[in-house]
Amino acid sequence: MILTVTPNPSLDRTYELPALTRGAVLRATADRVDPGGKGINVSRAVAAAGHRTVAVAPLGGPEGALLARLLGEHGIEAAGVQIAGSTRVNVTLVEPDGTLTKVNAAGPEITAAEAEALLDAVRARSAATDWIACCGSLPRGLPGEWYAELVASSHRAGARIVLDTSGAALVAALRERPDVIKPNAEELAEAVGRPLATVGAAVRAAEELRTRGAQCVLASLGADGQLLVDGSGTYFGSARVDTVRSNVGAGDASLAGFLAAGGTGPAALAAAVAHGAAAVQLPGSVMPTPADLDPSSVTTTTDVPLDRPLTEPAS
Asked: Model pTM greater than 0.85?
């Protein structure tokens, strides 16, 4: 069972447009609303793969009630913590060529009592989980050390924990030795304080984060592939993608595939790459099912292309 923790969940509304014109009245050709937030997306992908998952998240207002209902429709048990504020609503505009324009709301401010209730909700379920996935930014009101505290308490309960966040929250949590961290290229560059122009530079950054506490680094390099750096070595994975429709939630789908495949080793990396590649070919933040996966399009290797330039250098 995989437990996810999303401190700043959302309702994600996606509109597909024939064109994006500033100042005009636009009519969508298609629209949808999905439960959102990085951990919520991981739970959706885990559920789509046929595994049990519980989503811990602060929920408030009618938006929170709708989010809880949508989670149930996806086969996800919502362990919602009621808060005084309202759950945020994010908007994504999709153009025909796949270009995305996203508007993310800040979200509610979490009180100290609500923050402790979130920790209590995780503690109550830690012993029964295989993995705890803590994902996304911290909302207003939660201190930068909050994830570090969560990693420490989860380890005391005997649970394995993966952390998908960035900035000060990631750096602070490294000292508690999270089992896995999942940065993208930009987050890697931010964590080590230098630009990354090649795959080799990303490998060195991942190795540095392991010396600072991360036991395993699963790094997404976007269209350039994914890296897995752990105690057994360094692995590189990539996949053929025919058409990119939306990359919203693709990294979360990738993490779900990794955890559902055991969360360690090249086989789990291959699952991560397959799930991420499938997700970008689906609309909005739709999570892939097993039928959407194409394992034959995936390659993994220990022969990492260190000199390959990153398509979008991280600074």
From this structure: yes
